[in-house]
């Protein structure tokens, strides 16, 4: 049992003061809309001519323009981080921890404003946005706790020599987060790097650069020295390979799609001229997560959990359920239940700002991709609910349930990353496990059952990084459900843990013969 750590509680927006504060934060966001945001390299703010335009997915409104980094400025950022590493890496852990503690306080003080920006820029509802902020706080607090332990070094056997094995930082890191958790994943990558004494160059997603900027601004206020955290928004296709392949880059911390993750892995493995180390890559990637429902399951509970896993944040979580694998004898009854849940959600779809259970998908590309999959689903199975989409005012797609999908169908295999659920019929629990394991991914999974034997079997045979029983497959909480995937879902990082921090540390073994 882990003692001395508490998860941060989410805000209760039914409390009038919280609701009022949130509405005020939206007013502030409205005042800030349309601004230009710079890169931040070594504390210097740099505006470029080329801009990334941030668009609100709920309304298509322009939220602001963010300077876009080119390769020359990316080089400057990495050189700056390299220089800052010379002093930051030798700064005592307790001083680094002090900066993170101040960051925790600043995040809490600016909580409503950050939530409001996240809602506008990523299309989350209030609870999802604040849940994400709590996850970021949990990452910070857990990394503070782990760093204190790691700073003691490894315990070794006693000898007449003085032997120590100490953790030391490794160098300049590159952080490449996705847009769907624009705050917590980016913040977790940045803080895990710098608390361990590394310096970081952070390239946010081009869909959510303003939330990222707001976070980096708080890092500056928290007192991290110039050059320790550098902010270089820019297109992945323009500067992505460059920052990964730069000879001074020591590690890459990536979360995003399988395609980009594999590319980064490959590029990082090639040794650039002047590079004298093997780069480390943490790559957390996509999923095609299944939830099994067996004949003993409470179907109402299963449908509610699956609807939440498949449709909350419009299915745009890596942990989202996109396949319900259901035993034949309860298949029809389950479909009825899941349709009832989807119906309720559809009636409550709208902008994140209106705090409805379902909002828009992130952008036009995602809208086109997901609606394309819906058309494929129409041919591969029967759409029993949803199937409509509309991008006239924002990027809205109905929660969509497709039945009679075979295990080899396109929508049973490929990551859709949208609110589309394939319901697959199986004849036995063994077949259910085979289907659940039958994709190249291995991120999350869940089983609804009241059968102990099935639970035991699935614990061994369901091959995913995060396995749940009788609950949804989303909503992993820091240090309750350490998160990271198997197979093509990633390098199994298990964020929030002490092991995670060791990705960014070397162990130096030092021995002195005291008899000399
Ligand atoms: P993405 O398209 O792979 O982009 C992720 C990040 O990579 C973005 O910052 C992107 O920049 C950047 N990038 C693009 N090309 C690059 C290159 N050649 N080199 C370096 N960086 C490059 O993914 P996304 O659409 O943002 O996120 C959705 C995906 O993330 C889904 O597959 C989801 O399952 C996965 N995800 C996984 C986890 C997990 O923990 N396993 C968590 C969340 C999301 P631009 O924005 O400028 O293109």
From TrEMBL:
Gene Ontology CC: one annotated term: cytoplasmic side of plasma membrane
Domain Aldehyde dehydrogenase as annotated: residue spans: 50-510
Organism superkingdom: Bacteria
Reaction catalysis annotation: L-glutamate 5-semialdehyde + NAD(+) + H2O = L-glutamate + NADH + 2 H(+)
EC number: 1.2.1.88
Gene3D superfamilies: Aldehyde Dehydrogenase, Chain A, domain 1, Aldehyde Dehydrogenase, Chain A, domain 2
Keyword field: NAD, Oxidoreductase
Biochemical pathway: Amino-acid degradation; L-proline degradation into L-glutamate; L-glutamate from L-proline: step 2/2
Active site residues per record: 284
Keyword NAD: yes
An example Gene Ontology molecular-function term: L-glutamate gamma-semialdehyde dehydrogenase activity
Cross-referenced InterPro entries: Ald_DH/histidinol_DH, Ald_DH_C, Ald_DH_CS_CYS, Ald_DH_CS_GLU, Ald_DH_N, Aldehyde_DH_dom, Proline_metab_enzyme, RocA
Biological process annotations from GO: L-proline catabolic process to L-glutamate
Family listed: Belongs to the aldehyde dehydrogenase family.
Protein name: L-glutamate gamma-semialdehyde dehydrogenase
Species assigned in the record: Sellimonas catena
């Amino acid at each position: 049992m882990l003692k001395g750590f508490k998860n941060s509680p989410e805000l209760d927006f039914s409390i009038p003061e919280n609701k009022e504060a949130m509405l005020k934060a939206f007013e502030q966001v409205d005042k800030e809309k349309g601004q230009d945001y710079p890169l931040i390299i070594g504390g210097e703010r740099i505006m470029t001519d080329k801009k990334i335009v941030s668009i609100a997915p709920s309304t298509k409104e322009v939220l602001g323009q963010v300077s876009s980094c080119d390769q020359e400025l990316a080089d400057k950022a990495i050189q700056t981080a390299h220089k800052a590493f010379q002093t930051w890496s030798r700064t005592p852990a307790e001083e680094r921890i002090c900066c993170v503690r101040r960051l925790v306080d600043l995040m809490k003080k600016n909580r409503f404003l950050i939530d409001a920006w996240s809602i506008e820029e990523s299309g989350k509802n209030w609870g999802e946005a604040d849940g994400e902020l709590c996850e970021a706080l949990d990452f910070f607090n857990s990394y503070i706790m782990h760093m204190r332990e790691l700073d003691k070094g490894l315990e070794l056997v006693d000898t007449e020599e003085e032997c120590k094995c100490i953790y030391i930082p490794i160098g300049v890191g590159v952080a490449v987060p996705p847009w769907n958790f624009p705050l917590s994943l980016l913040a977790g990558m940045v803080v895990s790097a710098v608390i361990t004494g590394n310096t970081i160059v952070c390239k946010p997603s081009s869909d959510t650069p303003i939330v990222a900027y707001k976070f980096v601004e708080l890092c500056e206020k928290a007192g991290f020295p110039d050059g320790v955290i550098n902010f270089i928004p820019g297109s992945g296709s323009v500067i992505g390979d460059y920052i990964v392949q730069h000879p001074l880059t020591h590690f890459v911390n990536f979360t995003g799609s399988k395609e980009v993750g594999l590319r980064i892995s490959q590029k990082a493995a090639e040794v650039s001229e002047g590079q004298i180390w093997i780069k480390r890559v943490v790559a957390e990637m996509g999923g095609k997560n299944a939830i099994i429902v067996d004949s003993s399951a409470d179907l109402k509970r299963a449908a509610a959990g699956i609807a939440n896993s498949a449709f909350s944040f419009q299915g745009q979580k890596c942990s989202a359920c996109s396949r319900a694998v259901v035993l034949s004898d309860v298949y029809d009854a389950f479909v009825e239940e899941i349709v009832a849940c989807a119906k309720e959600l559809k009636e409550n779809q709208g902008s994140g700002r209106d705090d409805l259970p379902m909002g828009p998908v992130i952008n036009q590309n995602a809208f086109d991709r997901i609606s394309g999959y819906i058309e494929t689903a129409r041919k591969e199975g029967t759409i029993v609910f949803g199937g409509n989409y509309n991008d006239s005012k924002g990027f809205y797609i109905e929660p969509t349930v497709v039945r009679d999908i075979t295990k080899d169908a396109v929508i049973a295999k490929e990551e859709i990353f949208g609110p589309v659920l394939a319901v697959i019929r199986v004849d036995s629990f063994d077949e259910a496990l085979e289907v659940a394991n039958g994709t190249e991914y291995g991120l999350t999974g869940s089983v609804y059952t009241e059968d102990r034997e099935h639970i035991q079997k699935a614990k061994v045979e369901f091959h995913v990084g995060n396995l749940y029983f009788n609950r949804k497959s989303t909503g992993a909480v820091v240090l309750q459900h350490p998160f990271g995937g198997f197979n093509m879902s990633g390098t199994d990082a298990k964020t929030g843990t002490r092991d995670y921090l060791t990705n960014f540390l070397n162990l130096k073994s030092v021995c002195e013969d005291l008899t000399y």
